[in-house]
Amino acid sequence: QQLIYLDLDQTACVFATQTESSAPEPQLTHTSGSPKGEEHTIQREMTTEAKENGGTKPLTGLLKLTEEACFAMSDFVQKVYKRLTDDRKMMTTKADNSFFTIADSLVQLMTQTLYPLDKFKEFCGEESQKNINVAKRPYSIDGLPVPDDIADSFDKVFKDISAIAAQISSTQYKDIGIFVDPIDGTREFCNGKGEQCSICIGFTRDEVPVAGIVFRPIPLSPGGKLTYMSGAKEEGYKHGELDLVEGAPASILTTNGSISQFTKNLMEELKYERTKAGGCGNKMMLLLEGKGTAYIQDRGVSRWDTCAAQAVIEACGGVLCKLSVVESTGKLESYHYRVGDKNLDFNEGAMFTKYNIRDKSLLKQDPPPKISEELVQPYSNLCGIFAVKAQDDKLIASLTKAIQDISKTSKPEYS
Known about the structure:
20 strands
């Protein structure tokens, strides 16, 4: 087995070229955890999941085990979230001023354990995973202390995750890559809006998403059920718990923060309201729940934000694709997902930001350098996002026309 580690600024990506494993095939799987996210004990029994995992519906089997893992991880995430209001030592900010907590790192560590590199093609996670100490108390994450009660919760859930990992086929997923955002919407997670965050786990083959899960680990209301959706379009699988609404006004889903003039003008042209929300995965969930008409964003996110969301919304009959291609040609074109040092969807019309530039010192140059493939992060989505929950030709045509008309006078701010 050959392992190549790529540490690119804020991101840890691990690429694995495997040899065939001789490990015996596991015979047990796990029943579903509590839908309300409370502490639960994993029970082992033979179910159809064990047959599907490595059988005729391998992605379905993988997703069912992933759903179980997300319920387990939500117990830990909820404990961290509750403690953050009183203990801000468990969080910090990165070089680009984005938020980071111990939950981000430890949830990613659990997903890396769940999908070991001898069973999968490649793994890409948002966090750099530097200076993790969970071998000896007191635990710490890059200098951030892990309180003992939180460490106790992590140890328990990590044991459950390791047991689930043992049930994953050692031969079926050699062509499958994984893109993970352990806590999508960390800013909201740190500021009392945890219901807007999600665990996003996407599975790829041939550089496109083929399966995924978006899982909100914090209930939408105290004591409520956990909401999530998982799906694999090619196997006809979709499963989850949604907070559905009917009759919501037409709206564009946007970030909680500032938006571009293009987005403002587009909403005015369409006569759509603005629905603010955090997290790419959460916005995809809001689309499926009927709480927004479209998710259109010119300012960039990253592959780990969109991989799971794209797989899930496609499994549910919708689309998530590059806004820049909709603008220029009216076609629906996917981003490409592959671990490496090159951005596979470079957009020369994009602008540098502190989030997408490799060397942030270049932003201080006057004038700044011209954007190029060599200077941008490999996983930055430089082409924007266009998403709707259904392949509704009439809706897509009207949105496309508005986008193309508005862009003539107010260009999207791709970044």
